[in-house]
Protein 1
Amino acid sequence: MRNDRLREAMLNRGVTLPMLAEHVGVDPKTVERWVTQGRIPYPRYRRPIARLLKQNETYLWPDAVTAKRKTELAKSELVTVYPRRSAVPNDLWRDFMDQAAERVDILVYAGLFLVEQDRRFTDKLRAKAEDGVQVRVLLGDPTSPEIERRSLDESVSGVMASKIRQVMDRYAEVRDVPNVAVRFHCTTLYNSIYRFDDQMLVNTHVYGLPAPHAPVLHLQQLSGGEFFETYADSFDRVWQTATSDWPSAVAR
């Protein structure tokens, strides 16, 4: 059976059979069988193909990994759990930023701590973007009722909008930098997400607790795994609903 998902992904990215074959180091006839006969590539090929085509492995080859193996992979993708965000070592945040070579994705309401614990944070984002790293930042819209709802959940009205406006001033420094995109969302978040290539920190949200006191999952993406991709997909869904129009307080 033909793999229409793989074929369509190649067409959308302008990738030909010879190009894909060269990318992973196989014969073009092998790639042709992957497309026309639905043959499933070995794991060592699936991940670079998925990254090239900007698709998930589980989308391109949904039958490649058994349910049991997916469960095993999920356990392996979970590197560690921190009981609260403040327990995550500051060096870990810096190392992830320094090592990022392809993408940095940030989904928060405010994420004020990022610029507070590293005063050069936005400078580093600028430098990464200038090196070709794709930077996407999702901040809460400070005018939205969802933000006030979160403030009330933490028992202090208006606190979240105030934090967002503080960080907006910092992100305004890089909003016109190529490869940097900042959008504003009105989503009720269940997690804040910080992705640096194949590393991700997921700060869970707990009713009545501010984010620094809620647990954090450290995930590392593995070929064929779904745990990491679940949160990566969540980021993308919020990204699609967000607006690039900056609230008037900092509009230029």
Note: Residues 4-64 form a domain with the 434 Repressor (Amino-terminal Domain) fold (CATH 1.10.260.40).
Protein 2
Amino acid sequence: MKSVLITPEGIQKNLKNIKPLDAICEYIWNGFDAFATQVEVELHRNKMGLINMITIRDNGCGINYDELKYKFQPFNDSKKANVSQKTNHTLPHGRKGIGRLTFFAFSQTARWDTVYRKDGDTYEYYISMNKDSLNQYDDNGEKLPCKVEKLTGTKVSFTQLESMEKEDIINKIKEEFFWFLELNKENDYKIIVDKECIDYSDFVEHTENMDVSKYGCKEMYDVRFVQWKQKLGNEYSRIYYLGSDNKERYKETTKLNKRADHFFHSVYIKSSYFDDFHFTNEEIEGQGDLFPNKCDDEYKILINGINTFLIKYRSRYLKEASDIVAQLSRQKSKIFIMN
């Protein structure tokens, strides 16, 4: 058994507010952090029809055995968090190094069966932990990983569960990931629960392809605007910049977040213009005019055009919403008078 560098007091402090459904989402995020494009959730049931085991399987890069001590021993210290904060990308999503222990909130045991690639070969091993001894983990029974002919990826199995319902699990996954799945639509990202893909189409209020050339843009852009029916979980309404390979390069909030008008939206911009774009001052520093950046007139024209579109769309949306409220109010008044 190997020890995690944490005290019981540290566990209680960091995990006391973790909710079961949030914890399940953490393990799905872990799959995407490992470069997965597909995460499968399977809900196993006992003879009484109750969910007694959950497995979450991804097609990511697996957990390299040589890096295990850096991923499982330090607690509340995650390299993923530092990278995410510095680059302002959605991935990696991990925060504070606690994601691997959140099974504490809904399960007695967790076991990772992982396959990773090293020097052209693939290797397999397992890690297991128990809720009652979160400061220890079983490292493949102290044996070295064995060489296998398998695809890379990780399967996490949870047993001895708190009571949960399938409908609640699916709804939570949809609420957590709908904007992220839309962001990676062209990359064919999927979350599958019991053989069925998560469908978030009922969360979409309106979608529209924006023509930014009319604002004076010279580069070619594929701009997709989506208005959502509900809040984007913990995510703000943002603009996402993607390169020609459909990979996210950067994201930033729109100017219409701090409004109590339920105008939840996302803007996804894809262009080769962003393939070598430098978004931050740190990237621009010392590079002069070698790479496109936010000081470019082209970028300023693009953003001004998008902001113009958003402001006009929001104004129209608020007017329509106001008219609907007024109409309903008049109908209620008529009913009240008739009664």
Note: The chain has a mean pLDDT of 88.
Protein 3
Amino acid sequence: TTTDHVVVLDRHQIPESHRDDLERLVGDLAEAGERLAIERSALLPGAPVSPEPGAAARHVDARGADWAQVYPEWGLAGNAAIIIGPRAVTEGVDLRRRCFLHSYNADEDPSGSALETILTAPVVVAQWINCQYYFSTVAPRTFGAGTKTTHNVVGGIGVVTGPGGDLRTGLPWQSVAVGDHLAHEPMRLLVLVHAPRERIDAILARNPGVRDLVDNHWITLLARNDQSPRWHHRTRGGWTPYPTEIGE
């Protein structure tokens, strides 16, 4: 989230038959990183205005390694949703860096095992991230970490403000705002799933930790089948049609 770089490890283990695919992937990742650097640079304090792709990439790379930089990145600020479904669903849509995207095709997962992995791992992590940003924004004195400019690192496990005091929790103010202007809009994570609702219900029944996130409104879970444009909202009482058709 500071450099927009993706490094492919153990490239020597890739079979020769897949080397061309790998090179295309590496090239696509590099291009995506440069484009993302341009988008982030448009918002980062002190970043160049309307930079060329190469200049934006060099800038975010340098500031991510600058220990004096109090605004090294906003790679996760603004996160609002995770979309689980075929990538064609969001193709051509400018999501403004606010959504986690997880490719999923329900037709290729009749047992639901892949969806269960997604709902119990990536969705939970996305909720952690979203929750940390949420509370660091709405209650920064209690759940945030104050300003970076007076932080002292303690034992590699946390920070304190100035020379002492309690370990600070959450995110520093510079991760969610510039001065009094919020860079992060606090909202609970929206989870959009393209899958049969009964499949989701079965997964929630087996995983009470995820079910609690839904039932207690820590996340907003909407689902639909590809055959229907109608989204349904999952609550403690079951599924209800969502009042607004998303995307219309």
Note: The CA atoms of residues 158 and 248 lie 45 Å apart.
